[in-house]
Structures are given as structure tokens and as C-alpha cells.
Amino acid sequence: MKAIKCLKYGGPENLVLTEVEKPTPKENEVLIRIHATSVTTSDVLIRRMQESPISKFILQCVFGFGKPRKPILGMVSSGIIESKGKRVSSFNIGDEVFAYGSVSPTKRHFGSYAEYICLPEDWHIAHKPINISHNEAAAIPYGGLLASHLLSKTDIKKGDKVLVYGASGSIGSMAIQLAKNAGAIVTSVCSGRNFDLVKSLGSDLEIDYTAKDADLKLENYNYVLDAVGNSKSSTLKEKSKKALCPNGKYISIDHGIPLTPKDAFLNLKILVEQEKIKPVIDRIYPLAKMAEAHSYVEKGHKRGNVIVSMDHAG
Q: What is the pTM of this model?
């Protein structure tokens, strides 16, 4: 099968298209023929490995020194079950599914930058929502689960004011929708060119972080949700941390290790099928242009998600 291997840490040129052996499912696994995966900010951070010396050492203890221990990156997939182990009972051959390979901080499965992947049936796998495509399904798990993690630290009540910093990215675009579903009045912080996008997702008010007077538009919020974390900062962001109501709360995606419980994963499927949330796709690349997709994500200005489609010719 075709797959993208990360030969060593560094630039996107280290992502190389190659032929590898097609995996065989174990007794409790399904073999998924992948139709689409996504390139996430986390994928880029792992590939670059350009953290501070202490953080870099810790990360390489987890992922491998000098190069990834598991060279086929990617944790998001949407596709069709081609075969399964004899103990699998939840899925049948031909089922359309989507999956996320991070069950907990200590249970991760990379390998979605490929035409096939094997995953245990009791991991984060579910039948694909019937009202969306494989490309759209691949745009759900990463941003949806991390946004769900942010929302799990809140107790949003109808009418609460919520500010989402980094509202147009994969996490932020989901955070807007989840907060609106909870009854919040949402203010979105992003560039002006993304105002139409966030409005379409339910945003009530928008602040352009590039504007000189942006901080003057801040109000007091019950919750400030930072969907970009330590990777980006600005004067507006620093001031937004203090723009809180009494007992208000600032929550960053970089506060602790995000948890991705299965009930949150399954809840995303339900919300998509109920048309209460929708995935946002910026660009779609073919597998052979994975390096180009990484370069685009690395610029830090993507709108929603960047998808890699096995069915896309370019």
C-alpha cells in the first residue's frame, strides 16, 4: 500500500511517499481502507520537533529520538472496513466508519497517512455520519474532541458570554458550535477575513485580532476559551485573559493534557447527524502532496481543517 513516512524530524520535505506492507487485522481489530485523513497542528508539531530542549527531550521519549518510532504519522481516518478479526462484533465488512487514534494520553495509534490502517474495534471508531462525506468526517475528530475538552471544563448556561480565541481554526470552529449548542453568546477572535466563516457557525460578535483597537471591543466573559494555546500570542490575547466576569474562567488548550473520552467522540457523531455542528474544510490535498499540506498548515492560517484524500487526484 502507499503511505507517507516521516524519515526524520524537521521540515516537510522529510515526508516521503513510499510503499509499505498492507497491515493485517488482529482478532480484535478492523482493517480500514482509508478514504480521507487530516493534517493537524499536532501532526506538524511532532514532525518539526522544534520545542525547548526539555520539552523536546520529553516528546522524543514518547515518539522516538531523531525520527518517529512509528514513521507513518496521522491519527484521523475515514473509510470503509475491508476486513476484520474473528472477535470483532460491532462492525461488518463494508461499513463506512471514521476514527481517531488517540484514546488516552498513553494509548495512541498513528498510521492514518496511508491507504489502510488497523484499529481495535473498542477504540474511537464509529459508523460515519450518513449525512456527510469521508472528507468531512475526517474533519471532525481532532478539532471536535479538543473543543469538547475545552467545553468540559465549563458549566455554560443559557446567556453566558463566551469568547473563543482562535475561532477560525479546527478547534475554534468546533468550540463556537459547541458553545452555541450549550446556549452561549459567542464572541469570536480571528482575522477579519474569517468573519463570514465564524458567523456561519453561529458567532454572535467578532473581533479582528489584527486591528489596532481590538482590545477596546473586549467585554467581560463567563469563559474565555483559548483554542490556540502557547503557539500564538498577542496583546489582545493577554488582555482577554483578564476580561472575565466575577468567577469567570480562562481555559487554554495547553492547560494540562487534553482528554478524549469515547463518549465525547460518539457525541460528535450524534451532533453532526442532527446537523447541530458541521465540519469546516479549508483545502484538500492528494496523498502524494502531504508535504505541501504540512507546509500550508505550518503557516498557521488555515480555516478549519486541511484534508488529505486518497480519492483526490490533485
A: 0.93
Q: What is the pLDDT of residues 114-173, one digit of tens each?
A: 999 999 999 999 999 999 999 999 999 999 999 999 999 999 999 999 999 999 999 999
DSSP string, 122-168: TSEEEEPPTTS-HHHHTTSHHHHHHHHHHHHT----TT-EEEEETTT
Q: Which are the contacts of 156, defined by CB distance < 8 A and separation ≥ 6?
A: 162, 179, 182, 183, 184, 222, 223
d(CA 226, CA 224): 6
Q: How far apart are CA 145 and CA 76, in angstroms?
A: 11
- Residue 70 burial (CB count, 10 A): 14
Amino acid letter for position 29: E
- CA distances to 23, 219, 282 from 242, in Å: 51, 10, 32
Q: Which fold has domain 143-252?
A: Rossmann fold (3.40.50)
Buried-exposed string 6-29: b where 16+ CB fall within 10 A, e elsewhere = beebeebebbeeeebeebebeebb
Listed by start position, the domains of the chain span 2-140+279-309, 143-252
Q: Domain 2-140+279-309 falls in which CATH fold?
A: Quinone Oxidoreductase; Chain A, domain 1 (3.90.180)
Length of the chain: 314
Residue 314 has pLDDT above 60, yes or no: no
DSSP state, residue 192: G
